[in-house]
Design a protein that fits this description.
Elements lengths: L6 H15 L9 E5 L2 H7 L10 E2 L11 E5 L12 H4 E6 L5 E7 L9 H15 L5 E5 L2 H6 L7 H11 L3 H4 L5 E3 L7 H10 L5 E4 L3 E6 L2 H24 L11 H11 L10
Parallel strand pairs: 7-8
Antiparallel strand pairs: 1-3, 1-6, 2-5, 3-4, 4-5, 6-9, 8-9
The protein binds 1,3-dihydroxyacetonephosphate and zinc ion.
């Protein structure tokens, strides 16, 4: 089977297209990866190259030994995924120790995303906290999230409460709240480390003045998480601007947030509720 016939590859390309259409991927901004299951790998392994050079990981990822990932290329435009798949993304294989990676398919003319180590570190965390359920890691440059990060302090309590309270169903999508990191160098080991630590407790991590990273079980969940956070940030910004720059006054109360959670059988992060 050709790589392009895999359902996961179709889902990967669809997310790239949808997210570009939403304005989240200027130039090469953002990146996407997917941890393939064994069935998918077996189905297309005849197309794999076994001659790529092994590149050592700065932070070995032993729990990912032997895993294969779809991942966008460094410097590549997500909008081109559908037009030129093998140039825009590819498959990276991790060696049997989880100490190095090589290209198995695609990624022609470029290596994987400069955030590869952040993606892998996040998968390692996801394996520990979600028992392998998280197959997608996605980073987007969403304008409202970035704009809000120039107004709010890099503090998860402030962010989560602001977003929960402007749109009733935000808490249904991210009941555990969202993590927020201060500004850090893109692609750096420090960013990878700080992100995977926050991803232990949260599925969403805001990168101040940069964008957002999520871990999710499916492409739909990844897109939905980013979409909901981005939309809530936009509503908060609009409401605040319409109110002369002051915080809006008529918001969902803590009591109402608890009622929503009770109705939908959700356990919210109590640390973030009053
Ligand atoms: P890459 O093109 O290397 O994926 O970098 C884009 C980006 O958004 C880095 O944070
Ligand atoms: Zn980025």
């Amino acid at each position: 089977m050709s790589v392009l016939d895999l359902e996961c590859v179709k889902g990967f390309i669809r997310l790239c297209e949808d997210a570009f259409a939403h304005g989240w991927h200027e130039a090469n901004g953002g990146n996407l990866s997917y941890r393939m299951d064994e069935e998918d790998v077996d189905a297309c392994s005849a197309c794999f190259s076994r001659e790529g050079t092994w590149i050592s990981l700065e932070h070995p990822a032993p729990s990912l030994a032997g895993a294969h990932f779809l991942i966008t290329g460094s410097g590549k435009y997500l909008r081109n995924a559908v037009l030129d798949p093998a140039q825009t993304f590819g498959i990276v294989e991790v060696d049997n120790l989880g100490a190095a990676w090589r290209v198995a398919w695609g990624l022609e003319g470029a290596g994987p995303s400069s955030e590869l180590e952040t993606h892998l570190a996040t998968y390692e965390t996801a394996l520990q906290v979600s028992d392998g359920a998280n197959r997608v890691v996605y980073h987007a440059h969403c304008p409202n999230i970035i704009a809000l990060s120039t107004l709010l302090p890099a503090d998860m309590n402030t962010w989560t409460r602001a977003l929960w309270k402007v749109m009733t169903e935000s808490i249904i999508v991210f009941p555990q709240g969202i993590g927020v990191l201060p500004w850090m160098i893109p692609g750096s080991p420090e960013l990878a480390q700080a992100t995977c630590e926050l991803m232990r407790a949260y599925k969403v991590c805001v990168w101040t003045q940069h964008g957002v990273m999520v871990r999710a079980a499916s492409f739909d969940e990844a897109f939905g998480l980013v979409h909901t956070v981005e939309k809530s940030c936009g509503i908060y910004l609009q409401a605040r601007a319409a109110n002369g720059g002051e915080d809006p006054q008529f918001l969902v109360s803590d009591e109402q947030l608890r009622l929503v959670c009770a109705r939908y059988g959700l356990t919210p992060n109590e640390d973030l509720l009053c």
